[in-house]
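Q: What structure does this chain adopt?
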Amino acid sequence: MALLNYSAFASLDGYIADEQGDFSWAMPSPEAHTLANELMEPIGTCIYGRRMYEMMTYWDSPEATAEGSGIEYDFAM
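A:
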């Protein structure tokens, strides 16, 4: 049986986004992002909500593939 992990960024009072739907406050430091990448590496499938899915489709674009490096690219791959 597979293991299901749930992960979400939220403020201490339970908010994921502000009134405008922005959650840029949750951007991790490079060190935290690298650790998150390492923790995500063995995961075979990710299930996203609509907004996260729409954000992640960027990494299928030629522009993202051309960048080809960096912590964010490693996260998406």
